[in-house]
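DUF922 domain-containing protein, pasting as requested.
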Amino acid sequence: MIRTFLILCCFLCIQQDESVMSWNESYKLTWSDFKGPPNKNTSAVAVTASGITFGFSVSKTDDRVVGYTSEVHAHFYPEKSWYKKDEADLHVLGHEQLHFNITELHARKFRQRIDQVKVSNSVRSQLKQLHNTINKELSQMQNTYDSETNYSRNVEAQAKWEAYIAVELKKLSKYKSVD
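C-alpha cells follow.
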C-alpha cells in the first residue's frame, strides 16, 4: 500500500486571491509590477516582497519512506511590493530586481541541496530543516545586500552585487526556475 502526503511550506503567507509572479530569466520587473500602496512613514523608496515557496510529497510503503518529490519556487508578491513614484528611478528598480534575483539564487541553492537528500524515514524533517536554513540564509543575504549598497545609494557596491549575483546564478543554472 503506497500513501502520498503533501506538505506545503511558504516563506510568505499567500492568500488565495493574492497575485504572485514566478521568477523568470527573461522577465525583468517593471514599476507596474509594484501594486501595493507606498509606505509614507519610511525613508524607503521601494520594497520588493519576494520569497520561496516549497512543497513536497513523500511516498510510503507501510511505515517506510520509499520516495519523495518536491517543488521550489521563487515568487514576487505584487500586492505587497510598492514604490514611491516621485522618488523612484531605474537605478532603484535595478536594486529591487536584484532582491528578486537573490530570492531565485536561494531557490536554486535549495533545489541543489534537495537533490542531495537521500530517501529515508527522516526525509520530512530533513526537507523542513533545509527549508528553514535556506530562508535564514536568504534573509541574511538580503539584509547584507541592502546594508552594503546602502539601499542602492552606493552605486559601486550595487554594481559589485549585480556582478556577483549574476555569476552565482550562472553557477547554479542547472537548478534555475522553469515556469
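Note for the archive: The two ends are 33 Å apart (CA to CA).
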